[in-house]
Amino acid sequence: MDTSATPVCPDCGFRIYNRRFPNCEACGAGLPESLVYSPIERFEFQLEEEERSLAKARRTVQQPFSITTPGSLDDSVLSAVLELTER
Question: pTM for the complete prediction?
Answer without folding.
Answer: 0.51
